[in-house]
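task queued by scheduler; priority normal; single chain, no ligands, no partner chains; default sampling; output format set to C-alpha cells
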Amino acid sequence: MRGFSFVLITFFVLILSCKDEDTLYSSHIETKGAWLKNEPVKASLEINESPIDIYLILKLNEDYPFSNIYLLSNISNPDLKITDTISFKFDYSKNKSLLSRQMRIKTFKIPIYKNMNLNEKTSVEISHAVRFIDSTEPVMKLEGILDVGILVNKSNEEI
C-alpha cells in the first residue's frame, strides 16, 4: 500500500510540474456535438505579456461534414477593433499512421491572431461562418464539433 501511495504522489507531482509556461489563458465550451451559430466562444483577456498568439482549439468527430471551416473573429479593446474572416483547411495528411486513422476524434489548433501586443482589457469573440456550397445562409447548427475553445500563448516570434 505504501508503494502505491508513493507512485500515486509521484505521478501527481509530475503532472503538476508539466504545466506549459507559455500558456497565458485557456477557456473552452462543450458543444454537445454541435456548435450553434449564435453561440460564439468568448474570452475577456487581461494579459500583461507581449507579444501573444491567440488560437482556436477545435475538437471534431467523424460527424463533421466539411474538410474546412470558416471563422468570424472579433477582437476589441478601447484602442483596437479587428474583425476578420478566417478560412482553415483541415490537414489530415499528418495523420497517416494506422493508429490515427482509427481515431474518431481530432483536435486542431487554429491560429487566429499572431504576434499581438495587448496592454488593456481585451475581448475576443469567435463564431463559425460555415455554409453549404449551394446556400447563402450559414449553417445554424454545425454538427460534429465536440469542444471549442480559445488558447492564448506567449509568442515565440520577435517583433
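post-processing summary
- Confidence is low (pLDDT under 50) at residues 4-20, 97-101.
- Helices lie at 2-17, 98-102.
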